[in-house]
Design a protein that fits this description.
Layout (H helix, E strand, L loop, with lengths): L12 E7 L2 E10 L4 E7 L7 E9 L4 E8 L4 E9 L2 E6 L8 E7 L5 E9 L5 E10 L1
Antiparallel strand pairs: 1-2, 1-10, 2-3, 3-4, 4-5, 5-6, 6-7, 7-8, 8-9, 9-10
């Protein structure tokens, strides 16, 4: 992709989200004259989780920046890039347990993709959550 500011465009739209034990929805919109992506995730009733993120391409740093906040009081900051056909964002700081977190969007097509959330304490990545996205 020639314009790195368009690397996250695959995520725009309304999505059905399915994971082991549940399903939810996600709406991702371009705002601020198309420069910012705003996510609205709703995992209810399967899980008591509603969250939002803001993502923007930081041109001077040549990377994507995302901040997530949710109904459980969690928040985190991620940075990353689109490489080898996947978008990968990682936490800038270890969590309280010393783990770095990684969000990965892969198997991307026009109608679907796989999202994973993983943690690593300095060794192998351990998958914590996998969501299959399909267009609503």
């Amino acid at each position: 992709m020639d314009d790195p500011r368009r690397q996250f465009d695959f995520w725009l739209g309304e999505w059905r989200c399915a994971w082991l034990g549940g399903e939810g929805t996600n709406l991702v919109e371009a705002v601020c004259e198309g420069r910012v992506l705003r996510e609205s995730f709703d995992g209810r009733p399967a899980i008591d989780l509603v969250g939002t993120s803001i993502s923007v391409y930081d041109e001077p740093a040549q990377q994507w920046v995302q901040t997530w906040m949710d109904s459980q009081g969690s928040w985190f900051h991620l940075t990353g890039a689109f490489r080898d056909g996947a978008m990968e964002l990682m936490s800038a700081q270890p969590d309280a347990g010393g783990d770095i977190k990684r969000m990965r969007f892969e198997n991307i097509t026009e109608r679907a993709f796989t999202w994973t959330w993983a943690g690593s304490g300095g060794g192998e990545w351990t998958e914590l959550w996998r969501i299959e996205y399909s267009r609503a």
